[in-house]
Amino acid sequence: METMTPQKPSGTTCPPPTRWGICSAGKISHDFLVALRTLPAEEHLAVAVAARDLSRAQQYAQLHGVARAYGSYEELARDPEVDVVYVGTVNPQHLPDTLLFLRARKAVLVEKPMGISAREAKEMAAAAREAGVFLMEGFWTRFFPAWKRLKALVDEGALGECRVLQGALAFPLRSVERVREPSLAGGALLDLGGYALQMASALLGRGCPPLRLRAEGCLHPSGVDETVTVTLQYEGGKQAAMTVSMDAKMPGGVVLGGTRGWVEIPSHLNCPTELIWEGKREVFPLPPPAEPLNFPNSTGLRYEAQHVRECLLKGLTESPVMPLAESELIAEMMDEARRQVGAVGPGGTAP
Amino acid sequence: METMTPQKPSGTTCPPPTRWGICSAGKISHDFLVALRTLPAEEHLAVAVAARDLSRAQQYAQLHGVARAYGSYEELARDPEVDVVYVGTVNPQHLPDTLLFLRARKAVLVEKPMGISAREAKEMAAAAREAGVFLMEGFWTRFFPAWKRLKALVDEGALGECRVLQGALAFPLRSVERVREPSLAGGALLDLGGYALQMASALLGRGCPPLRLRAEGCLHPSGVDETVTVTLQYEGGKQAAMTVSMDAKMPGGVVLGGTRGWVEIPSHLNCPTELIWEGKREVFPLPPPAEPLNFPNSTGLRYEAQHVRECLLKGLTESPVMPLAESELIAEMMDEARRQVGAVGPGGTAP
């Protein structure tokens, strides 16, 4: 279960709070700040927020009680009181922004996708390894209590041998510029597909590549991928079929079938708060947000923030739950899926 | 909604009962007989049951109150009081048995798959058309009240434009000889796949072929297909991804996502008794069976029996809901899917 405070030997002083810097004043950064505020202030403290537009950074600083606002990411990188930076910029900026902070020896939690291609993901991972600085891709899913419960059922063999993973994550996002535009690395795969692929990787592949990946889909008129099903075949007859779409409303559920039983996340496979096991619904409620959220269940970003703190307190340079090698693998799978459907990105069609 | 009695002008006499002959004394025939008994006897009457083994036919006749038992299908075909034959034999027998009854000018309701290949399905459809005799493949799904409710929501545009269909039907059937053996035309696709494909055909294709069909899967050591995902791309960016498996337990649910909303069948997509629409569960309970059933929800076979009666009373030679051309199309899709995964059937690999 979730440990609310890092373990420490009795009699020692409490470890200091983890001091967060926030890179960008976009919608997801807002939600991340709200999520941080659901955690004890003696453990998590947002100390600075930076945006290209200083006034937006100032708005966020005021709203969320952050001490310092910067009009450039470079200033944030130079702030000596920042331990770790949350990078919440648009997809094509994840690489340059992450490199900026890694070079300043700041730990980084970067929103998914870690890069818009495997080449970018590898460059970021290499930079982190070389610098010996913590880097993690923000697959928050893996830190939700509902996910941990599902994972524990799998690991203790409650389902027998896991065989089939099937789910669909879809939102009507055609009107959202960020998702629609090739120049912003839009498309259903880069926006939603990573969630599906990381789930298959965690549950069926356990970090190993699939034997085969097949993607079938159709494109938006802009050239980005609109609806895509990725089928993954793993060793031992294990198969995942995950559909993502920016053109439909769906509950976002996923079901994992084993030889002895199944477990289902009825909605929001990317940020689950409930699951169904042996016909019974188990609920893992989120703390209420202090401010309205932009995205569903966003106070659940607290769990990945807690995990990052735990890693940093242990002196780790990468997460054992979401390691860099798996981010690289997921980026490779994403490249291949986008290539197969002919998706167009900032540099033309996918590699 | 379901009409329990065929419409007739007031003042006329009631139409006579539909007199059913049952071909085979297997598990599904048992369930079909139980289902018939949930309907008014003045409308549906099982008058004869035939099996290769007379004693089994006699057992069924006694258990279900059927007047005559035969030790051969030929005798059933000659029974002048049989209006329509339910063919519940194993998959490779569907063709010869159906042809036998069609040639005897008996209407036929044949269990799915109509044939074990498109060639067989076409031969059966041609024989029915030539004889001018009613033939329908037993896709009972399409006659369930829950399915009709879902279809009505789609047809009235409640979901907006339908875009994504995704579901998985899976049972641990590796130990079942009928499903495991190539000689019996086993495999997940022929056993379960038709349900998935007919659903995509009804909801997205509306009887038209998909633009593309892609199948990805793995084989059982016997050579039959074990777990398969079929992805179907239809005109207008509509996509279905349906997984079937004989090697996992899954709830068997399906979700249809449109541009404005989604509707979900949480379990048993092949014989649904509930659906979720706008977050609310709607339940369509089945009548209780008079005898224990072999398969889930089998009293729901009553709905297809009612539909057959309605067709016969109208003098139709095929069903407008499950027409022969669509059975041929589904058989072609099944052939293609089995060919792509390299499934082995009675005559070697799929055509």
Q: Regarding quaternary structure, how should these chains be classified?
A: homodimer
Largest sheet of chain A: 8 strands, mixed
Shape field of chain A: globular
| Helix share, percent of chain A | 25-40%
Q: What are the low-pLDDT stretches of chain A, counting only 5+ consecutive residues below 50?
A: 1-8
Average pLDDT rating of chain A = 95
Supply Rg of chain A: 19 Å
How much strand of chain A?
Answer: 15-25%
Main-sheet strand order of chain A equals 8-9-10-7-11-12-13-14
Distance between the termini of chain A: 40 Å
Distinct helical segment count of chain A: 10
Query: Count the strands of chain A?
Result: 16
- The structural class of chain A is alpha/beta
Order of secondary-structure elements of chain A = EHEHEHEHEHEHEHHEEEEEEEHHEE
Largest interface: chains, residues each: A-B, 38 and 38 residues
Written account of the structure:
The structure is a homodimer of 351-residue chains. With 351 residues, chain A is α/β, with parallel strands linked by helices. In chain A, 33% of the residues lie in helices and 24% in strands. Chain A has ten helices and 16 strands. In chain A, the strands form three sheets. An eight-stranded mixed β-sheet of chain A has the order 8-9-10-7-11-12-13-14, with helices on one face. In chain A, helix 8 (188-205) crosses helix 10. The longest helix of chain A has 18 residues, at 188-205. Chain A is globular and about 50 Å long. Mean pLDDT of chain A is 95; it is low at 1-8. The A-B interface holds A 159-160, 163-164, 166-168, 170, 172, 212, 214, 216-218, 226-227, 229, 231, 233, 237, 239, 241, 243, 245, 247-251, 253, 255, 257-262, 264 and B 159-160, 163-164, 166-168, 170, 172, 212, 214, 216-218, 226-227, 229, 231, 233, 237, 239, 241, 243, 245, 247-251, 253, 255, 257-262, 264.
